[in-house]
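[step 3/7] fold_predict: job queued, chain A
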Amino acid sequence: MLPDDVLVEIFNSYVKTYCHWYIRQNAWHALVLVCRRWRYLVFASPRSLNLRLDYSGYGPMSEMPDAWPVLPVILVSGIHQHPISGQRWDNMVSALESEHYNRICEINIFRITESRWERFVAAMQKSFPELTSLDVGAEFWDMDWVPVLPDSFLGRSAPRLRTLRLTSIPFPSMPKLLLSANGLVILTLWDIPDSGYISPDAMATALSVMTTLESLDVQFRSPRSRPDPANRPLPPPTRFVLPALTHLIFQGVYEYLEDLLARIDAPALYKLITIFFMDLNFDLPQLHRLIGHAEEFKAFDHAEVLVLNRSIELSLYSNTGVVDHRSQLDLEIICDELDWQIWSLAQVCRSSFPLISALEELEIREDHDVISVHWQVVMENARWLELLEPFTALKNLYLTDEITRRVCGALQELSGERATEVLPTLRNLFVDVDGFQSLEHTEEVIRPFVAARQLSGHPVAIDRWRR
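[step 4/7] structure written:
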């Protein structure tokens, strides 16, 4: 009883819903099997329904059902965790080599092994006229083998490419290819080996033409991907704008990100995740500028510090619901030792980090999987005080069990004027004690601090944190 255009709109909603799943299921197949009218409407609307044929290598591509119309093809090998079988792999590469290659619009092939790499690269030496998405990953368990994409990859041109994801694959000539892919929306480079280093200047040059880029994710494998101080050019007098960039994820040394950010601006940014390798000196003026200019971050009022076995994380967000749930600001420092974790994060927070001095709530907690040896480190109480000092507007402080013992041990040393210099606006201390110590014991440990705050006219109440 519904008109054709209404049915097509319903079909479109259905297909879009299933395309959000990473492993596609040719969702529209179910529609064409209902009745002749639905079949006619679906095949008459290939563009509005964005019809695609998923091909996973089960049988030669030439044997795909003749009943399906000529549609763009998606090559998908399956999930990242498992390499595909030998026969499926042969069929997938044969599809790249066949006359049907000009119908391929997406390529998703993961865990490519050394023995399969040469044939795959040979099949990818030409331009794919319909290719809009390329997601390729090498076998990351084999650290002794590093694959390389040659300069001739994709025929040196990818004008229709919208999504590019490479995992564990160096591509020295990638900046040149990116200059031809100025319609790119998503660029993801995961686990970049040391041999895949691309200078911040070359990366910035490639990004300068990407006015449609929405997501940039660059993650280096090790801290050896560090810019050479002698060859670091001065930042240009003006930055170019990435007007569509909303997501930025980076893992590497802080100098690389600083050099990159010195060349770009992203006014629409609302998701920022930075993962730094441990360093003795974090100097982050460009990162601070980027955060300070992002309107989405200015309403954040809550911070969370998470202590892990091999890293420490700082997350900022809003507890009031004012900020869109999409907004995210995370900073992680990779480091094994607890004292260096706290010291490095304190260094980042106290060096003019935007938003920190205006936050009203802070949680400091340890991950459930943190091993007990981690807490056997003998650490100066001053380390914890250095971490807390930048939070000058803090009203509520939340601590988990082991963190409570450490932080309260540091606070009890404060007396006189010093008791109000650290966390001067603190009103409530919430502790989550579970077996290690009682609330009464915590109150006893921190009594000197509480007494000093009471005398100064800035009382602090202690209560149990009921999460």
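[step 5/7] annotate
Residues 1-51 form one domain.
The CA atoms of residues 262 and 353 lie 17 Å apart.
exit 0
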